[in-house]
Amino acid sequence: MTVTGGSDQIKCPDGIRDDHAAPRRGLYRHANPFSILVLGALMIAALTGLFGGDKTSTLTAVSPAATLTVDTPRTMRSGLFFETRIAVEAREALSDAVIALPPALWRDQTINTIVPAAESEAFKDGRFRFHYGALAAGDRLEIKIDGQINPPLTIGAEGEVALYDGERPVVSIPLTIRVLP
Question: Do 70 and 143 touch, CB atoms closer than 8 A?
Fold first, then answer.
């Protein structure tokens, strides 16, 4: 096909017909409204946090000895950097505040930083244990953990964030994290 306009002739690629160059009429002369509706729906869903990256949620558990609070995103995307904050408020004296986490909670994640660093770290009874030492009644311990979701983690992770006083369980919070591709 050859398109002419004035003294110029333009040769079009194979498969282009005259009706392709003709002005469109009616409802579909511009973008298809269905595609705009689909794009708008996806943008609204993303803004609500449906696809991950929403606000962190705070979980709290209280026992006579201490209050444990975990603040972390519950829905994340693969490759996302995230921050988890764990707070312990001692309601009575703790001889050794220990945060215990199962490996399943951190499987296929890279933990970049834990601040403050624990006095000692160990693996015992199927849990990572971070020993922070003694806390007097009324003392508060805040821990910040920075990590990243690795690509193999596609469904999620679950486990329990637990507080121990040495070997004695004090309080725990079950935690489920959903990971989207």
Answer: no
